[in-house]
Amino acid sequence: SVSGSSSSRGSSSSRGTSHSTHSTRSTKSTRSTKAAGVAKKSTKAYGANPKLAKAVKSINIQKYAKKGHTTFCNQAFNAYAGKLGYKGFQGKVANQMFTSMKAGKDGWHQVSAKDAIAAAKAGKLVAAGWYNNTPQAGRPDGKRPGHIAAVIGEYAPGVPGIAQAGTRTFEWGPVTASRKNPTYFVRN
Question: Given CA atoms 102, 187, 105, 150 in this order, what sign does their dihedral have?
């Protein structure tokens, strides 16, 4: 069965609460998963914002890869957001992050995929989030795990490019490799 407990990957004060695994779409990326390699293509219409790709690279996202049944998207996003100066989600799971962003706390606001891409291209902190409303006892928010990923550019025409930890952990890929129909948030 899927565990809802914290893992031994570090103290909860340094990384936040971990959450259990969730299914992801099995679309395979045909582009490189190296954010730095994509960032060098800044003259191209598509790719990651170099500043955001560098922030992803600096957190070593692979250390947040799935361990057993536990995933660490919230911790990876916290580390990434911290590199951009935002520390408002420490200790929160993905559903709690989503709820906070949806409520407009700390300068977050909901945007379209198109606006999320534009904001990421401009170097802003952008998230793609999925809220899970299914109850699960023993979780910090009483719900099964949601998911959060960092939007860092435009992968293909109209497709946000993300970095994420979870069932699949990568520095660069299409949002469709993670979940369908996320909600996008930008922090100003």
Answer: positive
pLDDT value, residue 44: 58
Q: How far is Cα 106 from Cα 36, in angstroms, rounded to an integer?
A: 29
**CB 14 within 8 Å of CB 74:** no
Q: What distance in Å separates the CA atoms of residue 128 and residue 176, rounded to the nearest whole number? A: 11
Residues 119, 17: Cα–Cα separation, whole Å: 28
DSSP the chain: ----S--SSS-HHHH---EE------PPP-S-S-HHHHHTTTTSSSEE-HHHHHHHHHTTGGGGS-BTTEE-HHHHHHHHHHHTT--TTTT--HHHHHHHHHTTGGGEEEE-HHHHHHHHHTT-EEEEEE----B-TTSTTSB---EEEEEEEEEETTEEEEEE-SSS-EEEEEGGGT-SS-EEEEE-
pLDDT tens across 3-43, in order?
333 333 333 333 334 443 333 333 333 333 343 333 333 33
pLDDT range class, residue 179, cuts 50, 70, 90: confident
Distance, in Å, from the CA atom of 71 to the CA atom of 165, rounded to the nearest integer, reads: 7
Q: Are 168 and 161 in contact (CB under 8 A)?
A: no
pLDDT above 90 for 159 = yes
- Compute the distance between CA of residue 147 and CA of residue 141 in angstroms, rounded to an integer: 13
